[in-house]
Every structure is written in structure tokens, then in C-alpha cells.
Amino acid sequence: MTTVVLNVKIEETLKDKLRQYAEVNNENLSTATEKLLLSAFELADDVDVSEDDIDSQHTEEEVTPFTPKEIKALRKILKKRK
Questions:
Q1: How far apart are CA 19 and CA 29, in angstroms?
Q2: Among residues of the chain, what percentage have pLDDT more than 70?
Q3: Of 20, 34, 53, 61, which has the most beta carbons under 10 Å away?
Q4: Residues contacting residue 21 through CB under 8 Å, at least 6 positions apart
């Protein structure tokens, strides 16, 4: 197994929880993080969710056309940019 470095930005409170977890389990921060990530992926694999349950490609949004007043305002903005 090859070990690599992972740099991530997380909330300070989450890092404190991770440090506390590592301390309670007599592990270093790296080992605790790897252990928790692996268990999270195992849990995610166990969840019975199909692709159709999370696919949002076929959803439609309600779109209302611009009003003449909005079109005029947009034209004014675009004209100022030139």
C-alpha cells in the first residue's frame, strides 16, 4: 500500500473533534482520519440507493420569462459595459 499526503481545509471544530477522537482511541491524527474515512465509505457502500434515486438530470425547473421591464434593465446594464 502506498501512502500519500492529503491536504484538506475543514472547520476548526471538526478538527478538534478529530483530535479528540484520535486521543481517545490512542491514535495519531493521520490514522484516525484514515480510519474514519474508510468507515464512512463502507457505510456509503452499504446504503441501498440506486442511481435513479439521486439522479437529478430529468428534473425540470419552472422558468418564467423576463418581463419587458427586466429586459430593458438588462439592456441598460449591457450597454454600460461597452
A1: 6
A2: 84
A3: 34
A4: 32, 36
Alpha-helix runs per DSSP H in 1-82:
12-24, 29-46, 51-54, 68-81
The type of residue at 2 is T
CA 28 to CA 20: how far, in whole Å?
10
C-alpha triplet 31, 36, 39: angle, nearest 5°: 125
Q: Whole-model pTM?
A: 0.53
pLDDT in tens, 16-54: 999 999 999 999 999 999 999 999 888 877 777 666 666
